[in-house]
Design brief:
It is a single chain. This protein is mostly beta strands. Helix content is 0%, strand content 50%. The strands form 2 sheets. Strands 2, 4, 5, 6, 9, 10 and 11 form a 7-stranded mixed β-sheet that branches. Strands 1-3-8-7 form a 4-stranded antiparallel β-sheet, with no helix packed on it. The chain is globular. 33% of the residues are buried.
């Protein structure tokens, strides 16, 4: 199993970024996908997740209305569109996968990517 994130970078407050996570080595269309983030000195926290079909999504309150999670099962890829970014969104963002249903607990995910850095600063 391999998960590879991309799309991170430096952006000004109010800006947007789109993260991608390319998956391989498992039947992507039957697995839930999640995005988590970890800022320096803080614990890893839930950001967003969606089920295998993409019909059910869940968001942390801190990103609801600004971030959108989606997936393309034909391309084995999950996305995180991040709009109206704030300095407090600065973190390393990780994608993760678990079978079938999404979950907010990081410990329930079986596989993780290496992370991509997002920095929101003027």
């Amino acid at each position: 199993v391999q998960l590879v994130e991309s799309g991170g970078g430096l952006v000004q407050p109010g800006g947007s970024l789109r993260l991608s996570c390319a998956a391989s080595g498992f039947t992507f269309s039957t697995y839930a996908m999640g995005w988590f983030r970890q800022a320096p000195g803080k614990e890893r926290e839930f950001v967003a997740a969606l089920n295998w079909h993409g019909s059910s999504t869940d968001y942390a309150d801190s990103v609801k209305g600004r971030f959108t999670i989606s997936r393309d099962n034909a391309k084995n890829t999950v996305f995180l569109q991040m709009n109206s970014l704030k300095p407090e969104d600065t973190a390393v963002y990780y994608c993760a996968t678990r079978y079938y249903s999404p979950d907010r607990k990081a410990t329930s995910y079986n596989y993780w990517g290496q992370g991509t850095q997002v920095t929101v600063s003027s």
